[in-house]
Amino acid sequence: MSVEEDIEAIAEQERLLVFDRFDGDTAWVLGERLRRVASERGLAVAIDITLHAMPVFYSALPGSTADNARWIRRKRNVVLHFLRSSYAVGRRLAQQDATLESKFSLSDTDYAAHGGSFPITVAGVGCIGAVTVSGLPQREDHNLVVEILAGMLGHDVGKIALAD
Protein backbone atom coordinates (compact mmCIF):
# COMPACT_ATOMS: atom_id res chain seq x y z
CA MET A 1 0.00 0.00 0.00
CA SER A 2 1.15 3.54 -0.67
CA VAL A 3 1.44 6.08 2.13
CA GLU A 4 -1.78 7.70 0.90
CA GLU A 5 -3.62 4.38 0.90
CA ASP A 6 -2.34 3.65 4.41
CA ILE A 7 -3.54 7.04 5.64
CA GLU A 8 -7.02 6.45 4.18
CA ALA A 9 -7.23 2.90 5.53
CA ILE A 10 -6.12 3.94 9.03
CA ALA A 11 -8.67 6.77 9.05
CA GLU A 12 -11.36 4.18 8.24
CA GLN A 13 -10.09 1.92 11.05
CA GLU A 14 -10.27 4.84 13.48
CA ARG A 15 -13.81 5.63 12.30
CA LEU A 16 -15.00 2.02 12.71
CA LEU A 17 -13.19 0.90 15.85
CA VAL A 18 -15.30 2.81 18.35
CA PHE A 19 -16.82 1.44 21.54
CA ASP A 20 -20.32 2.19 22.83
CA ARG A 21 -18.84 2.11 26.32
CA PHE A 22 -15.44 1.33 27.77
CA ASP A 23 -14.37 0.80 31.38
CA GLY A 24 -11.79 -1.08 33.39
CA ASP A 25 -13.49 -4.42 32.76
CA THR A 26 -13.51 -3.79 29.01
CA ALA A 27 -9.83 -2.85 29.21
CA TRP A 28 -9.08 -6.12 30.97
CA VAL A 29 -10.91 -8.16 28.30
CA LEU A 30 -9.08 -6.28 25.52
CA GLY A 31 -5.72 -6.75 27.23
CA GLU A 32 -6.29 -10.45 27.85
CA ARG A 33 -7.31 -11.01 24.22
CA LEU A 34 -4.20 -9.22 22.99
CA ARG A 35 -2.02 -11.19 25.42
CA ARG A 36 -3.59 -14.54 24.49
CA VAL A 37 -3.17 -14.01 20.74
CA ALA A 38 0.39 -12.71 21.16
CA SER A 39 1.27 -15.65 23.41
CA GLU A 40 -0.26 -18.21 21.02
CA ARG A 41 1.81 -16.71 18.19
CA GLY A 42 4.98 -16.60 20.28
CA LEU A 43 5.29 -12.81 19.95
CA ALA A 44 7.74 -11.05 22.25
CA VAL A 45 5.63 -7.97 22.91
CA ALA A 46 4.56 -5.72 25.73
CA ILE A 47 0.93 -4.58 25.92
CA ASP A 48 -0.43 -1.49 27.64
CA ILE A 49 -3.90 -0.04 28.04
CA THR A 50 -4.14 3.40 29.58
CA LEU A 51 -7.31 5.38 30.30
CA HIS A 52 -7.09 9.09 31.12
CA ALA A 53 -3.35 8.74 31.88
CA MET A 54 -4.06 5.87 34.30
CA PRO A 55 -2.65 2.41 33.48
CA VAL A 56 -5.36 -0.26 33.61
CA PHE A 57 -3.59 -3.19 31.91
CA TYR A 58 0.03 -4.08 31.30
CA SER A 59 1.67 -7.32 30.26
CA ALA A 60 5.19 -8.10 29.10
CA LEU A 61 5.47 -11.42 27.30
CA PRO A 62 8.66 -13.49 27.31
CA GLY A 63 11.32 -11.91 25.12
CA SER A 64 10.05 -8.36 25.54
CA THR A 65 12.39 -5.86 27.19
CA ALA A 66 12.41 -2.61 29.13
CA ASP A 67 12.84 -0.86 25.78
CA ASN A 68 9.31 -1.98 24.87
CA ALA A 69 7.95 -0.13 27.90
CA ARG A 70 9.75 3.04 26.76
CA TRP A 71 8.40 2.64 23.21
CA ILE A 72 4.89 2.15 24.62
CA ARG A 73 5.11 5.39 26.59
CA ARG A 74 6.34 7.36 23.57
CA LYS A 75 3.78 5.90 21.13
CA ARG A 76 0.95 6.34 23.65
CA ASN A 77 1.95 10.00 24.07
CA VAL A 78 1.40 10.49 20.34
CA VAL A 79 -2.12 9.05 20.53
CA LEU A 80 -3.05 11.14 23.56
CA HIS A 81 -1.63 14.29 21.94
CA PHE A 82 -3.15 13.90 18.47
CA LEU A 83 -6.14 11.62 19.28
CA ARG A 84 -5.11 9.50 16.30
CA SER A 85 -3.23 6.23 16.02
CA SER A 86 0.53 6.57 16.29
CA TYR A 87 0.89 4.90 12.89
CA ALA A 88 -1.51 7.38 11.25
CA VAL A 89 0.56 10.25 12.61
CA GLY A 90 3.78 8.59 11.45
CA ARG A 91 2.47 7.91 7.95
CA ARG A 92 1.22 11.51 7.62
CA LEU A 93 4.63 12.81 8.71
CA ALA A 94 6.33 10.49 6.19
CA GLN A 95 4.05 11.86 3.48
CA GLN A 96 5.11 15.39 4.44
CA ASP A 97 8.79 14.47 4.85
CA ALA A 98 8.57 15.84 8.39
CA THR A 99 9.20 14.69 11.95
CA LEU A 100 7.41 15.31 15.22
CA GLU A 101 10.31 17.54 16.19
CA SER A 102 10.39 19.59 12.98
CA LYS A 103 6.62 20.02 12.64
CA PHE A 104 5.37 20.14 16.24
CA SER A 105 8.50 20.67 18.39
CA LEU A 106 7.81 17.34 20.12
CA SER A 107 10.92 15.57 21.38
CA ASP A 108 11.82 12.03 20.33
CA THR A 109 12.52 11.44 24.00
CA ASP A 110 8.81 11.63 24.76
CA TYR A 111 7.04 10.94 21.45
CA ALA A 112 7.33 8.24 18.78
CA ALA A 113 5.16 8.30 15.65
CA HIS A 114 5.58 4.57 15.07
CA GLY A 115 2.82 2.00 14.72
CA GLY A 116 1.35 0.17 17.66
CA SER A 117 -0.75 2.62 19.67
CA PHE A 118 -4.40 3.11 18.85
CA PRO A 119 -6.96 5.46 20.40
CA ILE A 120 -9.65 4.00 22.61
CA THR A 121 -12.65 5.94 21.40
CA VAL A 122 -16.16 5.92 22.85
CA ALA A 123 -19.11 7.03 20.71
CA GLY A 124 -20.37 10.43 21.79
CA VAL A 125 -17.36 10.95 24.06
CA GLY A 126 -14.18 10.73 21.99
CA CYS A 127 -10.73 9.40 22.82
CA ILE A 128 -10.47 8.27 26.44
CA GLY A 129 -7.13 6.47 26.26
CA ALA A 130 -4.89 4.24 24.19
CA VAL A 131 -4.10 0.58 23.64
CA THR A 132 -0.47 0.01 22.73
CA VAL A 133 1.69 -2.91 21.62
CA SER A 134 5.48 -2.82 21.24
CA GLY A 135 7.95 -5.45 20.13
CA LEU A 136 7.21 -6.12 16.46
CA PRO A 137 7.94 -4.03 13.37
CA GLN A 138 5.67 -1.00 13.59
CA ARG A 139 3.17 -2.08 10.93
CA GLU A 140 2.77 -5.46 12.65
CA ASP A 141 2.29 -3.78 16.05
CA HIS A 142 -0.46 -1.66 14.49
CA ASN A 143 -2.10 -4.60 12.71
CA LEU A 144 -2.15 -6.72 15.89
CA VAL A 145 -4.00 -4.01 17.82
CA VAL A 146 -6.46 -3.46 14.96
CA GLU A 147 -7.09 -7.22 14.64
CA ILE A 148 -8.08 -7.57 18.28
CA LEU A 149 -10.14 -4.36 18.36
CA ALA A 150 -11.98 -5.44 15.20
CA GLY A 151 -12.78 -8.82 16.74
CA MET A 152 -14.10 -7.25 19.94
CA LEU A 153 -16.24 -4.79 18.02
CA GLY A 154 -17.61 -7.28 15.48
CA HIS A 155 -15.79 -6.02 12.38
CA ASP A 156 -14.19 -8.23 9.73
CA VAL A 157 -10.49 -7.52 10.14
CA GLY A 158 -9.87 -8.81 6.62
CA LYS A 159 -11.83 -5.86 5.26
CA ILE A 160 -10.05 -3.17 7.28
CA ALA A 161 -6.52 -4.50 7.88
CA LEU A 162 -3.54 -2.84 6.25
CA ALA A 163 -2.06 -4.97 3.49
CA ASP A 164 1.52 -6.12 3.95
Low-confidence stretches: none
Quaternary arrangement of the chains shown?
single chain
User: Helix amount, in percent?
Assistant: 40-55%
Q: Considering the protein shown, what is the CATH homologous superfamily?
A: Haem-degrading domain
- CATH class type: Alpha Beta
Instruction: Note the gap between the termini.
Output: 7 Å
Query: What is the CATH topology classification name?
Result: Beta-Lactamase
The strands making up the biggest β-sheet line up spatially as 1-4-5-2-3
Molecular shape = globular
> What is the alpha-carbon Rg in Å?
14 Å
Sheet/helix structural class: alpha+beta
Q: Look at the structure and give the mean pLDDT.
A: 97
Number of domains: 1
CATH architect. name: 2-Layer Sandwich
Strand content: 15-25%
Q: Tally the helices.
A: 7
Characterise this structure.
With 164 residues, the chain is α+β, with helices and mostly antiparallel strands. It has one domain (3-160): Beta-Lactamase (2-Layer Sandwich). It has seven helices and five strands, in the order H-E-H-E-E-H-H-H-E-E-H-H. The chain has helices at residues 3-16, 24-40, 66-82, 86-95, 100-104, 138-153, 157-160, and strands at 18-19, 46-51, 54-60, 117-122, 126-134. A five-stranded mixed beta sheet has the order 1-4-5-2-3. A hairpin with a 2-residue loop joins strand 2 and strand 3. Helix 1 (3-16) packs antiparallel against helix 4. The longest helix has 17 residues, at 24-40. The mean pLDDT is 97.
